[in-house]
Structures are given as structure tokens and as C-alpha cells.
Design goal:
- It is built from two helices and 35 strands.
- It is mainly beta and about 500 residues long.
- Strands 23, 24, 26, 31, 32, 33 and 35 form a seven-stranded antiparallel β-sheet that branches.
- The radius of gyration is 23 Å and the shape is globular.
């Protein structure tokens, strides 16, 4: 996301990482593409089975998401110098890695952006009476970032660069990650761009000439910058025919990377927030640069995917020859939270639980603190779907990747009303001094005290979907290769068990 305008230490780390991984780029340039399966690689204890990772080299932000019939296309920041990797999937779980989509040209390196469908051929890039895909992205030519275009008339199989790139150059070093959409109400293209400490809006009749129309947000701390904005409409749950706009953007600091969102109205020129303060999309620590695919016309779904990492330690992950992982895609719905304010729900995509799997249920109906820990299974990749009823003051914990050397904990403290993720004793190699941490999210229970929770752990990832996606937690872990035990316990008090199902994907 950053180059010379970033802290120099991060730029140097990325360049050193690029040099180490350059050899592995040959795998892709030689046409050695792969299809990800659920089969484990015993020589690689950390490569997830359910999440997209590149065959080799560096991956960060998802970019240019588009659909072709039943295919979900994922493009992403890849290697150094920056370019766009490309993969596709029919089920959002099995991914086929395709040839690199965009490589650097005279306008500069290829940084983050989006892909839109120019159905009306407003750009003039396509044959009369036809349309096609247009990618709008930030190109970087030191020290400036500017907006450039590429287009495809064959559904993303090949891309062309039009003359005239870059199409928008403000002379800024912080001007990146454009999200473009056609706004029906104003009959024009609208674009939101991350411009340092604010988001800026632009309009265009043809994707080639842009006029600034407004700005939004103002970050206060000197180290903060906006990145990776997204703007989309969602139906309001329980209000047929009503929709609201959601503005999403990630915020990068030296030690904290997080995604935030606002809900409101968009008139094609400027966003008007109805959210008093930005809300966290995820309670982390590893969810960044999330963006959405266009709404699925067949199902009405809006699906989001993020980079499952943090710039605090991204280049320190003990994985090779690859670095970088995407989150589990999530389905977004919008409604009012318990405080009456707008709120996003984001459960895992339904394809996860529809994929072939084996499941088993526990026989016990209650957890008591005096019972100690109960071992549920031994799996490096698996899931749990549970409905629990913690009594007042009780605490329940799930352990993943447990061994004599450590464990990763997901727990609920009913006295405090918080769900938490704890990897301070997760085992495995040391990543850096900021990697061991505990994160928590407020999750008060309803009158029936039901806690619905879904856990997905996948060799080096842990994700938590609580209360049908009202709270989402995601974190990387790098346990010892032999750590596979999964257990549950009541640490204090008593917890009734309505449902506790263990899932193993085939």
C-alpha cells in the first residue's frame, strides 16, 4: 500500500523480502499455475487449506474483484515491484491461480484498485454496442501516485492499457486504492480514493476524465492514513425495498491496522454519514484492506474478503515460499444493532458449511469448572458450530492448536460480556515482539443468555463468527507442526451446551 511515503523501515523490509522471494516468481512466469485443494502438504505446516494463498511470493490487499457467470475472480497485490495476481473460484474455497493480470508499465508499479463492468461502453474502449471490464488502479512512479486504467474485452483473460495513462494525477504521494461504481441516480461514474488523512470523491462521464466532488473524514494522529476504501449499497434487513450505502476504509498506523465503516446516503458526489462514529469491521488483529465483489444478481449477496495480516509483522511470518493469506469470505447484511445504530453482520459465506465435510456432536450437555478441559478432536484444519448458555459470571474457553508448547484461545467472559482471542501463548517460532497479544470485543447476551459461535481454524489462521456474524475476530497463529489438539473448558461457573458440532472438511 505504501512506498516512499511510508516509514522507511517498512519500505526497506518489503524490498528485502522481495529480493528473497524473487526466485519464486519464476514459478508463475513459467506458467506453473496451481489449483488449491483441501489436501495437506506435510512439508508446509502453515499453508491454509480453506483460505487463498499464492503458490509462491508475496500477497497483500485484494484488488479488482469481479464476477464472470458463476466464477468469483480475485485479483491481489503481488510480489515486488507491485503487480496484480489473479485467481478464480466457483465456491470461494477452492481457488485456481491464473497468470498475473497486470504488470508494471511506463506509468509505474500496479498498486491497489478495483475492477468495474463498463456495460454502456462509456469509456469507448470496446466495440460499438458492447462493453467490458475496466480496472481502475493506483500506479506508482516514485514519488507520486496517480490513477490509471486497464481494460479487458474477454472477461479478464487479457488486459490492455489505453493511451493517456495516468488519467488522474494530483501530484500527491498519498493518492491510491480507487473504488469506482456507476451511480444510477446521477448517471455518472463515482470514485472514492484514499488521499492520506481523508477520503476524496470524484465523478466522471467516461472513466477517463475526473472531477473532484468532495471529501470525507479527517484522521487526527500524525501516523494514520486511510487505505483501501469501498462503497456499496446493502438492503436493510427487515425493511423490504430499503437500502443504505456503506463506506468502508482501512486505517493504517505504525502498530495498528484496522478496517472501519460508516452507513449513510450517497448522492453520486459525496457520502453523508448517519453513523456518529466509525465502527470496527473486525476485532482483529488480522483483517485489513477488505473489499467486496459486486452484488450477486442471482442471490442478492454482497461478499467481502480481506487480507488476513497486519503491517506490524507481515514480513516476519515464518512461511515459505509464500507470504500472505486472504480471510474467509464473509456475507454482509445490514440492520440496526442493539444500540439502535446501523450495524453490519458478516457470517462466513454459506459455501463453507455446504462444502463436503464430516461432523460429530458432543454428548455432554453441560460444562462445569470442576470438569477440567475436554478434548474435542485433533485437527490442524477444522470448525466448531456451538450454541452455549453461560451462566452469569462464568467463563468458557476453546483451545486450538494445543500442545505442551502452547495453545490459541477463543473465550467468552460473561461477567465482562466480552468475546476474546488470545495468542500470547500460541507456541511456534517467534514472529516479533508485537505478535503475542489478546484482543476482545463486546458481546452482551440476550435475556436467554444464548451464545452462538462458529470457529474456523486452518493450520495458521483462526476466525470467529459470533451471534450470526455480529462479531468477527481473525488472527494468524504459527503453532508447532505437531500442535493439533482442540479442547473446551469452563474456566469458572457453569455453561449449558445446546449444540457443539465439530466439522472436518474433506
Amino acid at each position: 500500500m505504501k512506498a516512499s511515503f511510508l516509514p522507511s523501515s517498512r519500505t526497506l523490509r518489503l524490498r528485502r523480502l522481495s529480493a528473497r522471494l524473487l526466485l519464486h516468481s519464476v514459478l508463475l512466469s513459467a506458467g506453473l499455475f496451481t489449483i488449491q485443494t483441501f489436501a495437506e502438504d506435510p512439508g508446509d505446516p502453515y499453508r491454509p487449506l480453506l483460505h487463498y494463498t499464492p503458490p509462491a511470493d508475496w500477497l497483500n490487499d485484494p484488488n479488482g474483484l469481479f464476477r464472470v457467470g458463476p466464477e468469483w475472480h480475485l485479483q491481489y497485490q503481488y510480489t515486488w515491484p507491485r503487480q496484480w495476481g489473479h485467481a478464480k473460484s466457483l465456491d470461494l474455497l477452492h481457488w485456481e491461480t491464473l497468470p498475473v493480470a497486470l504488470v508494471p508499465d511506463s506509468a509505474g508499479d500496479i498498486w491497489s484498485g478495483c475492477t468495474t463492468r463498463d456495460e454502456r461502453n462509456t469509456s469507448g474502449f470496446f466495440k460499438p454496442g458492447t462493453g467490458g471490464l475496466v480496472s481502475v488502479y493506483a500506479s506508482w512512479k516514485k514519488p507520486k501516485q496517480h490513477i490509471s486504467l486497464a481494460y479487458s474485452a474477454d472477461e479478464g483473460a487479457t488486459w490492455q492499457r489505453p493511451p493517456g495513462n495516468p488519467v488522474l494525477d494530483t501530484g500527491s504521494e498519498d493518492f491510491r486504492d480507487p473504488k469506482v461504481l456507476w451511480h444510477d441516480g446521477s448517471k455518472q461514474w463515482s470514485m472514492v480514493v484514499a488521499a492520506g488523512k481523508q477520503l476524496e470523491f470524484y465523478t466522471s462521464p467516461n472513466l477517463r476524465q475526473w472531477t473532484r466532488s468532495g471529501e470525507f473524514g479527517k484522521l487526527e494522529r500524525p501516523e494514520q492514513v486511510f487505505e483501501c476504501p469501498d462503497l456499496f449499497r446493502l438492503p436493510v434487513d427487515g425493511a423490504p425495498g430499503k437500502e443504505k450505502w456503506v463506506l468502508l476504509s482501512s486505517v493504517n498506523e505504525h502498530d495498528v491496522c484496522e478496517a472501519r465503516y460508516w452507513v449513510g446516503e450517497f448522492d453520486g458526489a459525496i457520502f453523508h454519514s448517519e453513523t456518529p462514529a466509525p465502527k470496527l469491521l473486525a476485532f482483529g488483529p488480522d483483517d485489513y484492506a477488505g473489499i467486496t465483489w459486486p452484488r450477486d444478481p442471482a442471490t442478492g449477496r454482497t461478499v467481502l474478503i480481506s487480507w488476513m495480516n497486519s503491517w506490524t509483522y507481515a514480513d516476519k511470518a515464518p512461511t515459505k515460499p509464500w507470504k500472505g493469506c486472504m480471510t474467509m469470505p464473509r456475507e454482509l447484511t445490514l440492520g440496526a444493532g442493539k444500540d439502535g445504530q446501523w450495524m453490519l453482520w458478516q457470517p462466513a459465506v454459506r459455501e463453507l458449511w455446504m462444502a463436503p465435510h464430516e461432523s460429530s456432536s458432543v454428548e455432554f450437555k453441560r460444562l462445569e469448572a470442576s470438569d477440567g478441559r475436554k478434548v474435542l478432536t485433533k485437527l490442524r484444519t477444522g470448525g466448531i458450530r456451538a450454541v452455549l448458555h453461560p451462566e452469569a459470571g462464568s467463563k468458557v474457553e476453546f483451545e486450538m492448536f494445543a500442545s505442551e508448547h502452547g495453545k490459541t484461545i477463543v473465550g467468552y467472559d460473561s461477567a465482562k460480556g466480552v468475546l476474546y482471542f488470545d495468542r500470547r501463548d500460541s507456541g511456534g517460532p517467534k514472529v516479533n515482539e508485537r505478535f503475542p497479544l489478546r484482543r476482545e470485543a463486546a458481546l452482551p447476551l440476550d435475556a436467554d443468555r444464548a451464545l452462538a459461535i462458529e470457529l474456523v481454524w486452518d493450520r495458521s489462521t483462526v476466525e470467529v463468527f459470533a451471534s450470526k456474524g455480529a462479531v468477527y475476530l481473525s488472527g494468524l497463529v504459527f503453532p508447532d507442526a505437531a500442535a493439533e489438539e482442540v479442547a473446551v473448558s469452563a474456566k469458572t461457573g457453569s455453561v449449558a451446551v445446546d449444540k457443539l458440532e465439530i466439522v472436518q472438511w474433506k
